[in-house]
């Protein structure tokens, strides 16, 4: 189905603006996967902060690990949403009429 004012897939792929949006979407997607992976790692091995920094920022209560996990999960969600927005922008680029 052809929508007036919206370029075809082939046209949208060829514009510099569409390429920029696709690149930004790939970066946001990759960073989202990394943040989600780190959040899962924090759930599986919560003592990694103590092992990495050789210190216990929360005196062993585990509160710092939970905060890190929640922050990483929130970052993953925000980046996934940003990636989705960029993919949509790459697909719907205004034509240069």
Give the overall shape, derived from the CA principal axes.
rod-shaped
- Helix amount: over 70%
Mean pLDDT over the full residue set: 84
What fraction of the residues are assigned to beta strands by DSSP? under 5%
- The H-and-E topology, N to C, reads as HHHH
Keywords:
mainly alpha; 97 residues; rod-shaped
Structure, described:
Helix content is 72%, strand content 0%. The chain has helices at 9-14, 16-44, 48-53, 63-91. The longest helix has 29 residues, at 16-44. By secondary structure, the protein is mainly alpha-helical. The protein is rod-shaped, with a radius of gyration of 20 Å. Helix 2 packs antiparallel against helix 4. It has one domain (9-90).
Give a nutshell description of this structure.
The chain has 97 residues and is mostly helical. The chain is built from 4 helices and no strands.
Strands, helices and their partners?
Blueprint: H1 9-14, H2 16-44, H3 48-53, H4 63-91
Helix pairs in contact: 2-4
């Amino acid at each position: 189905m052809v929508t007036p004012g919206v370029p075809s897939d082939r046209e949208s792929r060829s514009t510099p603006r569409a390429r920029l949006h696709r690149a930004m979407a790939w970066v946001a997607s990759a960073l989202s996967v990394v943040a989600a992976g780190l959040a899962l790692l924090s759930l599986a091995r919560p003592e990694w902060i103590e092992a990495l920094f050789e210190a216990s920022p929360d005196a062993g209560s585990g509160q710092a690990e939970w905060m890190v996990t929640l922050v990483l999960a929130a970052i993953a969600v925000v980046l996934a949403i940003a990636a989705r927005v960029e993919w949509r922008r790459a697909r719907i680029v205004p034509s240069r009429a």
